[in-house]
Every structure is written in C-alpha cells, then in structure tokens.
Design a protein that fits this description.
With about 130 residues, the chain is an alpha+beta fold. The chain has two domains: about 1-65, no CATH class; about 70-115, no CATH class. The protein has helices at about 55-65, 85-90, 95-105, and strands at about 1-5, 10-15, 25-30, 35-45, 45-50, 70-75, 90-95, 110-115. The protein has a three-stranded antiparallel β-sheet with strand order 1-2-5, with no helix packed on it. Strands 7-6-8 form a three-stranded antiparallel β-sheet. The longest helix has 13 residues, at about 55-65. The radius of gyration is 23 Å and the shape is elongated. It starts with a strand and ends in a 13-residue tail after the last strand. The structure holds zinc ion (ZN) (2 copies). One zinc ion binds near residues 6, 7 and 34.
C-alpha cells in the first residue's frame, strides 16, 4: 500500500504482464486520486494502479495506529567497571513512556537511541502496544 505524499490518498501498485528483455518502455505511475506523477520506470511490464478499497484503508489505518508508538532500543549506562563493552553500555528495549520519563531525569541512564526495539520494556515490563 502506498500513500500519496501530495493528497494523502491510498493506492496500490502492481505490475502486470511478462518481463520481456529489450521490450522496455517508460511506464508512469500516477496517483489515482490527484493524478500526481509518483514515479516512472523503464519496464516491459505495465503498472496497474488502484485506489485502495475501504477495507484496505481501514486495515492500513489500524496498522498505522498500532505502530504509532514503537518500543525503543536504547543504549544505557551499565557496569562501567566491566571490561566488556556490552556490559558497560548494554542495549535494552524500553517503552516510549519510560523513555519520556527518563529523558529529563537528572541522572538520565540513556546514552543514545539505537532504533526500534522488540519485545517488552525491560524497565516496567510493558509490552509493545
Ligand atoms: Zn494524490
Ligand atoms: Zn516501560
């Protein structure tokens, strides 16, 4: 599922037809809602652009909502007397609430944010939302 960055409309793009070596033409994909050119590609296939169905729109919205607050993978201060980097600065998963609560703490244990975490929060035990 793609979202038009101009009108915000949802659509899907699929390729149809055989891949023919040498039979390439420039095929363009336009937003089916506002006709904005999204991309073009040299291909022997055709692009089939469809407006998203109501069902697709609602499942997309649901997915967006559930991934709205991802768990965070952060590097924290650990046992600095250890000679192993993984113990000095362990990487753990925490929830966004714990992150926000600690962001302005005086002795903020978070060194840096590494990315999106997997699984439950190691501080409060909250699972992914
Ligand atoms: Zn559009
Ligand atoms: Zn937490």
């Amino acid at each position: 599922m793609e979202q038009c960055n101009k009108c915000g409309g949802l659509y899907s793009v699929s390729r149809i037809g055989p891949v023919v070596p040498g039979g390439k033409e420039r095929e363009e994909v336009n937003c089916p809602h506002c006709d904005d050119l999204k991309f073009s590609e040299m291909t022997s296939q055709c692009f089939l652009v469809c407006k998203a169905t109501d069902e697709e729109v609602s499942s997309w919205a649901e997915m967006k909502q559930s991934s709205g607050k991802p768990m965070l993978r952060v590097v924290v201060f650990g046992d600095l007397s250890s000679d192993r980097a993984s113990e000095q600065y362990p990487t753990i998963t925490i929830c966004p609430e714990c992150f926000e609560a600690n962001e302005h703490a005086e002795d903020d244990p978070i060194v840096s944010v590494d990315g999106v975490g997997q699984g439950a929060c190691e501080w409060c035990g909250a699972g992914p939302t």
